[in-house]
Amino acid sequence: MAVSLSTNTVKLYSPVAGQYLGEFKGHSETVNQISFSGPSNPHILCSCSSDGTIRAWDARTFQQVSSINAGPSQEVFSFCMGGTSGNLVAAGCKSQVLFWDWRNMKQVACLVDSHVDDVTQVHFVPNERGKLISASVDGLICTFDTTGDINDDDHLESVINMGTSIAKVGIFGETFQKLWCLTHIETLGIWNWKDGSNEGNFLDARTLASESWNLDHVDYFIDCHYSREAEKLWVIGGTNAGTMGYFPVNYKGVATIGAAEAILEGGHTSVIRSVLPMSTIPSGPTNSPSQGIFGWTGGEDGRLCCWLSDDSSESNQSWISSTLTMKAERTHKKNRHHPY
What are the WD repeat spans here (predicted)? Predict the structure, then answer.
C-alpha cells in the first residue's frame, strides 16, 4: 500500500498489518498521483508531481528506476499508462496532455488545443485501451483516440462540458461506458462518455448527502466507488471533523443520493483525503488475513486508519452495509467496525 505525504515523500505499508516497509524520496514538489503499474510489473510504483516529473520506483529496493521530465515550469497533475500497445504514458499538465513511449522514454505527442487550463485527470478506458479521457479546470471532459500519430485535429473525438472546474473523474459501468465526475465546488455529474449524454447532474450533492444521515453536514467529497458485482455507485463524502460516509447514487430515473450505507467514524480528527477499498479487492483464499479489512483511509491529521468489515469489534462507532463488502452469498446484515 503506497501513501503520498505532504513532505513530497511516498511511503509503503503492508495493507494487512499496517507495517511500515520503506519510502521513496526524490520529488521536490507536491506528489499529485501514485499508482502501481499493473500485474506485469507488480513491484513498480509510479508517481507524478508538480516538479514536472513522472517517476518509477522499485518497491523491492526502494530505488528510482526511471523518470520522465515534462519540461521546465511544467507540473504533472495526473498520469495513466495504456494505449493499444500498453506502453503509452499520458500525463495531464498545464492545459496540455503529453504522451511518451514508456519503452524509450521519448515524447510522442503533445495536445495543446483541447484544454485551456490545468488538466487534472487522464484515464485510458479499461476495455478500449486506445481511448483516453481527460478532464480539466476549464470544465471540459475530452475523449481522444490515441492510435497512430496523435494530434488535436484528428484525434479529439468528443467534448463534454461540466461547466465548472473538474477535480476527479472515473470510468465505470458494465462496459465502462459511463463516467462520474466530481468538481471543485462539490457537485457530481454522471455521463455516458460514448454518446455525450448526461444521466445525472447533482448540483446540490452535498445537501442531498447531508440530509441522508443524522451527523454533521457533509463538507466535501473524497471519491466515488463502483461495484461491478452489485452494479452500484457510491459517492464518498466527509466532514471537517473526520467522519466519512458512503452514499449510494441513483442516476436511473429520478436522480437521488440515498442514505449512507457505510459510516466510518472515530478514526480521523480532520479532513480525509484518500480512500483505499479492500473488501472489494479479491485477495485469494477466504481465510486471507485481509478478508476482514473494509479499507484504509488517510487524512490531513497524518493518520492512516484501517476499517474492519467483520464482527471482531464491539465498538459501534461506525458501521458498513453488507452490500459494500465482498462475500460469497448475499446478506443484509449490518456489520460493525472500528479503526485501529
Answer: 24-67
3 CB-near residues (< 8 Å, 6+ apart):
10, 11, 12, 13, 298, 304
Span 147-192, pLDDT tens digits: 888 887 788 999 999 999 999 999 999 899 999 999 999 999 999 9
Q: What's the whole-model pTM score? A: 0.87
Higher pLDDT, 182 or 333: 182
Encoded amino acid at 155, one letter: H
- DSSP designation for 339: B
Q: In whole angstroms, what is the distance from residue 125 CA to residue 133 CA?
A: 7
Residue in this structure with the C-alpha cell 466535501, named with its chain if needed: 220
Q: By three-state DSSP, how is residue 207 classified? A: helix
DSSP labels for 124-173?
A: EETTEEEEEEEEETTSEEEEEE-SSS--HHHHEEEEEE-SS-EEEEEEES
